[in-house]
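User: I'm curious whether this sequence folds into something compact or stays loose and floppy. Could you predict its structure so I can see for myself?
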Amino acid sequence: MTAQNSATLPAAIAVKHPLLRGTALASLGVVAFSLTFPATAWGLESFGPWSLVALRSVLAAAIAGAFLLARRVRPPAREHWAGLAVVAAGVVVGFPLLTTLALQTSTTSHAAVVVGLLPLTTAALSALRTGTRPPRAFWAAAVGGALVVLGFTLAQSGGGLSAGDGYLFAALLVCAAGYTEGGRLARVLPGWQVIGWALVLCLPLTVAGSALGLAYEPVHLTGHGLAGLVWAAAGSTFLGLYVWYRGMAEIGAPRASQLQLAQPLLTLVWSVALLGEHLAPAAPAAACAVLVCIAVTQRVKQPQNDLNC
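Assistant: Here's the prediction. I'll summarize afterward.
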C-alpha cells in the first residue's frame, strides 16, 4: 500500500462510518414508527382520539423533560424556537392527531400505505427548504417507490380512497414539514433535544387537551389500551423521534426519508401479528419493489450539502 493510499484510507473510513451509523439510527426510528398505528389502534380501545393524542404527548413530554433536567440542558437559543414550533406543530400535534382521527374509519394497513408517501413528501419539502437538488436517479427511485405504495393503496381500497384519506394526506404535509425542520435543527442541537424541547413547548396545550378530552370522551381502560398509549408516548413519540432525528442529521433528510418506504410494509406485518388484520397477497411483491427503490436511493451519490441538510 502506498503512502498516499494509507493516508486516504482513514478519511474514507471516517466518511463511511457516520453514513452507516446514521442509516442504522434512522432505520431504528422507522421500526419504532412502524408500530405507531397498531399502538394507536390499541389506544383507541381505551381512549377517545383527542384524549389519546394529548395523553401520549404529555407522557412523552414528561420523559423528555426528565432527560433535559437530568442532563441540565440549557434552553435553546432564541433563533431556534421558531423551528421547534414547526417540529411541535407537525410531529408532536399535527401528525398524531390527524392519523388518530383517520384510524377511526381506516384500517391500520390502509393508513400505513397511504402514509408511505411520506418519504417523497419529506424529500421534496427538504429540497425546497434547503435549496439542495438531489440527482435525477434519486428522484426517479423515490417517485418509483411512492408509485408502488400508492398503487398498493388503491388496490387495497378497490380503486378509491377511504373516508380518512383526507386526514392522512394532511398528516403527510405537516409531518414532512416537521421532519424537515427537525433535521435542520439536528445539525446544531442533539436530536433528542430537538424532540425534547418540541414536546416541552407543547406541554401547556397538551395538558389542557388531556383535561378536556378526558372530561368529554369516555374512557374504558384495557391492557391493550394502556400498552398502546405507553408505546405511542415512549416508543414512537420520544425514542423513535430521538434516533430518527439523530440519524437524519448524519445522512441528510432526503436519504433518511427514503428509508421510510419500508415503514408501511413493516406496519402491515405488525397489523397482522398484533391486530389480526388480513395481509393482502400483493404485499410481498410490493415489499420487494419498495426495498429495491430504497437500495437505489441509498446508493445514489448525494451532493455534499444534501448530506448535512
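Summary: The chain is about 75% helix and 0% strand. Residues 3-15, 304-309 have pLDDT under 50 and may be disordered.
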